[in-house]
Design goal:
Order of helices and strands of chain A: HHHHHEEHHHHEEEHEHHHEEHHH
Number of domains of chain B: 1
Strand content of chain A: 5-15%
Shape of chain A: globular
Family (chain B): Belongs to the cytochrome ubiquinol oxidase subunit 2 family.
Protein name (chain B): Cytochrome d ubiquinol oxidase subunit II
Subcellular location (chain B): Cell membrane
Largest interface: A-B, 70 and 63 residues
Radius of gyration of chain A: 24 Å
InterPro entries (chain B): Cyt-d_oxidase_su2 (IPR003317)
Number of strands of chain A: 8
Shape of chain B: globular
Distance between the termini of chain B: 50 Å
Main location (chain B): membrane
Number of strands of chain B: 2
Strand content of chain B: under 5%
Largest sheet of chain A: 2 strands, antiparallel
Structural class of chain B: mainly alpha
Order of helices and strands of chain B: HHHHHHHHHHHHEEHH
Number of helices of chain A: 16
Oligomer: heterodimer
């Protein structure tokens, strides 16, 4: 295999592994801040218990995010030297600002958040929790500025083959940034909602009748019911934005080979790059045109009519996985929320469904990233720099060795991570509850689990 | 505005990058050192040792990201030249850092019988990361070339960095712990100090012989006499440090912080010595920092940001260290 393909696989593997963890910490940081604020106001220990359980998950996830992130900062130079040589003047300051305004903030104050509850005043601990959440969001801000700029580059000029910034405001608020930023933050929120709901279900399913898992389950499910449909709406806006700036990506997403007035929505099919057609396609006539142009006979340009276009099949399938998981999230969030609201507890089937959906956010997030990043090919920076022109000159054997090593470690860590999450939940089930209420606080009867209802 | 010429900005960013590397070596140095010296025969000691670095290690590693990030954004061609030459050792470093970083959290959360596995992971990852850093330093000093001599020197340098990190790590433990663990750290610190001392001596001798311009810098007056202070201070610290270690622990734990501070001075001296030797090159004998610097406008916009942000980073770092001052014996994890 050549060094281009190996480098692409290695970078894709690293970034796919990395994104799993920030996508959790961004929203989980805010959720912890919410728990901490509720505790500060009510002084009810159940909020603190929710905090203490989920802050452990946060710490573990954060550590995995840090170590896999360090890998990325080295690979820009080792595997993609052409990237910084061509657009370093723009990517450089954005990355520098990410490190300076986000990384240090989150990493330094995390110490106080994890170990400082008994060491510092309450307000400082709450502030640290806030600033860690803020730091993770700032980090998402800067990296999405850069990523969006790579998709829709503006505010620069090329001099002797090197990009020079002319308008930083335009670079930061480039056309696809607002859509990508909101879409990503919401995907983080949904990932956390289903993670929290899944782990809480697991605790309840294993007979945990304490209040904390029910509380976290409620918070997660009601948020998901609200956010999942909203995410579909934001995603739609993002798609329209992509149609405007990167129409070839949308053509690949839709599996549209020929330009078509009144293009059908292809529910399923197998795109064939050789024959330039879709096999076994199930279509709804004219719907793609209606969704994308708001006109039954609107024109959707096909991939054949673009000078260069991304590989169709991976973009096509990733898009369907993302949308499919998204729809499933809406359905399950509403189904379970309504039951929880009406009956105050969930059926065994619902608990199992939520457990199965624990990592659904990861699947949707990864699929979404594949749509947008593979959809950017053959460019690294849309219209400016091709991926093939940025690759390294290192011997491909070296890349093959490191790729094998990274893949092994990532696989081990992923298994260990998931096992540990459920291990933590199991441990929490067995812990005795010693101070359920503080004097003066009304204790509401917990009637959420089957066990309690019978008693 | 005239003062901010491209040359001056390049120099400022070289200084910032060097500062980030130095701070990384000191800060992650002590927490890697705790990993290197981790007492595998006593679980309670391990818990205390790891608790002493718990609140800090994430932030410490961020200095590596900043150092590599600054090299990447301010000196892109040097970043790719250096890291391409060091491709495999960098991968070893990253694997070491990954192993120890996650072991840190996993050990506290898995079932009791699995804990020892992650502790080994933590220790081995720390040794691997420290060794590969030393190895890279060795290759860098030898002009980024792979010959049998430079490989031998790089391996030697790797061992020395492991020893140097073990030294600062043990001195951190002397400061942050008490009783039996403190005594253990004092013993280990003496051993690590001896190896580090030998290593620094060897680098001082080899470096001028290998790089002709290093020899010139260190032998041309008037700087030669000024620079002579660097090894002298460094060696004085070793002699004094050994005397202090022999007397510790004292009543009321007086002076427990001294070895740690002395090691910081040693690290600074070694670093200044190296920095002076290589100036103005970022890639030894190939690319100067002025040639490698990115466009003036980009440096300027990062400079403005740094002026505001770095004091803020310093401030909250102080808050964190202040919050966790004193002994780590009863630090609890939430």
């Amino acid at each position: 295999m050549d060094v281009l393909l190996l480098s692409r696989i290695q970078f894709a593997a690293n970034i796919s592994f990395h994104i799993l963890f920030p996508t959790i910490t961004i929203a989980l940081g805010w959720l912890l801040f919410y728990f901490k604020v509720r505790y500060d106001f009510s002084k009810h220990p159940v909020w603190m218990r929710a905090y203490r359980f989920w802050v452990k998950v946060f710490a573990l996830t954060f550590a995995l995010g840090v170590v896999s992130g360090i890998t990325m900062s080295f690979q820009f130079g080792t595997n993609w030297p052409g990237f910084m040589e061509t657009i370093g003047n723009i990517a450089g300051p954005l990355l520098a600002y990410e490190i300076l305004t986000a990384f240090f903030l989150e990493a330094t104050l995390l110490g106080i958040m994890l170990f400082g509850f008994h060491k510092v005043p309450g307000w400082l601990h709450t502030s640290a929790t806030f600033l860690v959440a803020f730091g993770t969001t700032m980090s998402a801000f800067w990296i999405l500025v850069l990523n969006s700029w790579m998709q829709t580059p503006v505010g620069f000029e090329m001099r002797e083959g090197v990009a020079h910034a002319t308008d930083w405001f335009a670079i930061i608020f480039n056309p696809s940034f607002p859509y990508r930023f909101s879409h990503t933050l919401m995907s983080s929120a949904l990932t956390v909602c289903f993670l929290v709901a899944g782990i809480s279900s697991y605790r309840i399913w294993r007979g945990d009748d304490k209040k904390a898992p029910i509380l976290t389950m409620k918070t997660a499910l009601f948020s998901a019911a609200l956010l999942a449909p909203l995410q579909a709406f934001v995603g739609d806006l993002h798609g329209l934005n992509t149609l405007e700036h990167q129409p070839a990506k949308v053509a690949a997403m839709e599996g549209a080979w020929e330009t078509n007035n009144g293009a059908p929505l292809i529910l399923f099919g197998i795109p064939d790059e050789e024959a330039r057609t879709n096999h076994y396609a199930i279509e709804i006539p004219k719907l793609a045109s209606l969704i994308l142009t708001h006109d039954l006979n609107g024109e959707l340009k096909g991939v054949n009519d673009f000078e260069s276009h991304p590989p169709v099949a991976p973009v096509f399938f990733s898009f369907r996985v993302m949308v499919g998981v998204g729809l499933l999230m809406i359905a399950i969030a509403w189904w379970c929320s309504l039951t929880l609201k009406r009956k105050g507890r969930l059926s065994n089937l619902q608990l199992k469904a939520l457990m199965a959906m624990t990592f659904s956010g990861w699947v949707a997030t990864l699929a979404g990233w594949y749509v947008t990043e593979i959809g950017r090919q053959p460019y690294l920076v849309h219209g400016v720099l091709k991926t093939a022109d940025a690759v390294t000159t290192i011997a491909s054997e070296n890349v093959a060795i490191t790729l094998a090593a990274y893949l092994t470690i990532y696989a081990v860590l992923l298994v260990a991570y998931i096992k540990t999450l459920f291990g933590l939940a199991k441990k929490a089930v067995d812990v005795e509850e010693y101070d359920l209420t503080l004097p003066g606080l009304p204790e509401r009867k917990a009637t959420y689990t089957g066990k309690e209802a019978k008693a | 505005m005239n003062w901010f010429t491209h040359e001056n900005l390049a120099l400022i960013f070289a200084g910032l990058t060097a500062f980030a590397v130095l701070l990384y070596a000191i800060l992650d140095g002590y927490d890697l050192g705790v990993g290197i010296t981790l007492p595998m025969h006593n679980e309670e000691w391990r818990d205390t040792a790891i608790a002493s670095i718990g609140p800090f290690w994430d932030a410490n590693e961020t200095w590596l990201v900043l150092a590599v990030g600054l090299l990447l954004v301010a000196f892109p061609s040097a970043h790719s030249a250096i890291l391409k030459a060091l491709y495999l050792p960098v991968a070893v470093l990253l694997i070491g850092l990954i192993l120890r970083g996650v072991a840190f959290d996993f050990r506290a959360k898995v079932k009791a019988h699995q804990k020892i596995r992650w502790d080994w992971c933590f220790k081995m990852g720390s040794i691997l990361a420290a060794f590969s850093q030393g190895f890279m330093l060795g290759i860098y000093i030898m002009g980024l070339e792979y010959t049998s001599v430079s490989l031998l020197f790089a391996c030697f340098s790797g061992v020395c960095v492991v020893a140097a990190y073990a030294l600062i790590g043990n001195n951190w433990l002397i400061m942050k712990t008490s009783n039996a663990l403190q005594l253990f750290a004092i013993r280990r610190s003496k051993q690590a100090g001896t190896i580090t001392f030998g290593g620094i001596l060897a680098v001082c001798l080899v470096n001028p012989l290998v790089n002709t311009n290093v020899y010139e810098i260190w032998s041309t007056p008037p700087f030669a006499s000024l620079f002579a202070a660097i090894p002298l201070v460094c060696f004085a610290m070793f002699v004094l440090g050994y005397q202090v270690l022999k007397r510790l622990p004292l009543e009321d734990d007086k002076g427990a912080w001294l070895p740690f501070v002395m090691t910081i001075v040693i690290f600074c001296m070694c670093f200044f010595g190296l920095a002076v030797s290589f100036y103005p090159f970022v890639v030894p004998n190939q690319i100067t920092l002025y040639d490698a610097a990115s466009a003036r406008d980009s440096l300027m916009i990062m400079f403005v940001g740094s002026v505001f942000v770095i004091p803020v980073i310093t401030a909250y770092t102080f808050v964190a260290y202040y919050a966790f001052r004193g002994k780590a014996d009863n630090l609890r994890y939430y």
